Amino acid sequence: MIRARARLWGRRFLPVVVLCVLPFYLDAFWLRIGLFSLAAAIGAVGLGLLTGTAGQLSLGHAFFLAVGAYGYVWLAGEPGPGLPPALALVLAVLLAGAAGGLFSPVAGRVRGIYLGVATLALVFLGHHVLLTADSVTGGFNGRSVPPLPGFTDSDPQPVLLGVPFGSAERLWYLGLALFALTWFTARGLLRGRPGRALAALRDSETAAAVMGVHVARYRSAAFVVSSMYAGLAGVLLALAFRRVVPDYFALALSVDYLAMIVVGGLGSVAGATAGAVFVTALPLLMARYADQLPLVAAPGAADGAVGPTEAARYLYGAAIVLVLLYAPDGLRGVTRRLRARRPRERPPRTPTSSPASTPAVRAKEHTP
């Protein structure tokens, strides 16, 4: 019992310890990949709540990431109110939630492919606004991102255990803290009454309504919460990229987020995280090692060659097909099944006394 509990706590805290010590051993390139993956995981957890738990198809996740990213840039920068960056971060997340709230009446009454088409319109509308509202978004060239105080290379760099902590290392811990906040709030929602209500909606609207679940209200609430997670992911991406451009927040980004939750496993926070890391890190790694991979051309090669980004999309497209055919519950389900196949420790067997040694038998033997 004690050994099993120790293993349980080890599984919980060992990943946290590993993530906290990574900046002491990895260079800026690997930390930047990890930071992009953390930001993608935050957005994927939000989309997993909406699509995997509530059963609402959304193709407009890129729009809410853009609202969060550009909202932060405008609120903290010039031209703009020039607010303190920390306050601008919070207000940008609330702005993304407000945008989701404006769309929530549609999400409360429409479902399935119809909601997917409706959210698809948000992506095209948002992309058009980002290109034309030059005074706010900077147009096609985008805008530079105001850094958070203490998270720039110009600030004094503390040295811990011989490792200088620059902007990449400090942003890593910021992203880790925001992801931890996302992880615990999302798991709390899923394990509480809202999560059970959303799961009931996904399985059967009629049964959920009979049990007292307000269908339109919970659908709208799921859309708002998902939009806020996307806004937070957009702010973290903006801080990591240091510049935002409209072309990044296109339809392909929404498709990438759908791929994350499908590969990782619908309705699972851990699965959405694993899918986000896979989809985000794969093209970056292939771009770095393109000269060592067969059939993959280096970035900027001649036309007609398969670049790292296209090759990565082919790979996780194939991963989606394999998941749908052989593991519909994604990487999370595969991990759960592999863990269930491990031989479990059997409790020690207590010695049993033979019938001849029981008091009743001994008394019977000595009876004349």
From TrEMBL:
Residues 337-368 are annotated as: Disordered. It is found in: Cell membrane. Keywords: Cell membrane, Membrane, Transmembrane, Transmembrane helix. The keyword Glycoprotein does not apply. GO terms for molecular function: branched-chain amino acid transmembrane transporter activity. It comes from the Bacteria. The keyword Cell membrane applies. Residues 351-361 have a biased composition (Low complexity). Its main location: membrane. The chain crosses the membrane at residues 9-26, 32-50, 57-75, 87-106, 113-131, 171-190, 221-245, 257-285. It is a multi-pass membrane protein. GO terms for cellular component: plasma membrane. This is Branched-chain amino acid ABC transporter permease.
